[in-house]
């Protein structure tokens, strides 16, 4: 066998050589590329950074997310479902993915590209409104029971 194992045309193949961190675009240079007309994320360099109000909103969402996860994960809720404004379909995000998306938005000023989850079980996800209402209900219950303790000890 000329050249030996792992060699082609006198050149020896080396493990890891030519490996890319990101997937290679199979349509690169193809005039029939189905994504040719889509928006290039590199063109977003001209996007404005988040305003102070937008930044504060994202920080509040992150804080709320921590509370929602602490209250809802123990009862089997895996994350939140969000109605997508672009495609008008529900998108299911587990806690860590949503947290990562919010942190990315905070650091880059732009949302991540999203794809619908693969075969999620909708019974394991709730909306932001449901999570907020659940947290408010827990807070109100704890506040009321705390008020009852102070009223009874005041006698």
From TrEMBL:
InterPro entries: DUF5319 (IPR035165). It holds the Pfam family DUF5319. This is DUF5319 domain-containing protein. It comes from the Bacteria. Residues 17-50 are annotated as: Disordered.
């Amino acid at each position: 066998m000329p050249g030996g194992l792992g060699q082609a045309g006198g050149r020896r193949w080396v493990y890891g050589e030519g490996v890319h961190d990101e997937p290679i675009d199979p349509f690169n240079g193809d005039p029939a590329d189905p994504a040719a007309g889509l928006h290039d994320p590199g063109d977003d360099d001209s996007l404005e950074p988040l305003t102070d109000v937008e930044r504060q909103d994202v920080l509040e969402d992150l804080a709320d997310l921590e509370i929602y996860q602490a209250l809802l994960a123990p009862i089997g809720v895996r994350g939140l479902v969000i109605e997508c404004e672009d495609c008008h379909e529900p998108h299911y995000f587990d806690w860590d993915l949503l947290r990562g998306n919010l942190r990315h938005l905070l650091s880059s000023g732009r949302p991540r590209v999203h794809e619908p989850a693969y075969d999620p079980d909708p019974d394991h996800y709730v909306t932001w409104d449901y999570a907020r209402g659940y947290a408010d209900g827990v807070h109100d219950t704890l506040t009321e029971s705390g008020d009852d303790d102070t009223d009874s000890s005041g006698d």
